[in-house]
Design goal:
The complex is a heterodimer.
Chain A lengths: L2 E2 L6 E2 L1
Chain B lengths: L11 E4 L3 E6 L2 E6 L5 E4 H10 L4 E2 H11 E2 L2 H17 L3 E3 L1
Antiparallel strand pairs in B: 1-5, 1-7, 2-3, 3-4
Helix pairs in contact in B: 2-3
The chains are: A mainly beta, B alpha+beta.
Chain lengths: 13, 96
Amino acid sequence: MRRQWKVPRLEVL
Amino acid sequence: MLTNTKLSLETTVKQVKGNIATDMGGETVMLSISNGKYYNLGEIGGAIWDLIETPIVVNDIVKALMENYEVGKKECEEEVLSFLNHLYTEGLIQFS
């Protein structure tokens, strides 16, 4: 079963 | 910070060595030794980061993600390219 997609984002912490 | 270069679905990408990544509650958090910054790659970004541990063509990244996540081809391609461009501008990946 495929999982929910979320937009990949790069956050600087 | 690097400027964007031409990244396409046929480009081969891989991690730049010298980053420390770890899983924190399902998201990948990373420290860049070279620039001293901490990053949160999130869940999907972490999956992409794992895929580019060794050189891989962007198209193959998209295929792998489409097998595991509910996402259309065009959407996946656009968002993966955008994410990889961001990684590149931060000096975290290299193209070949």
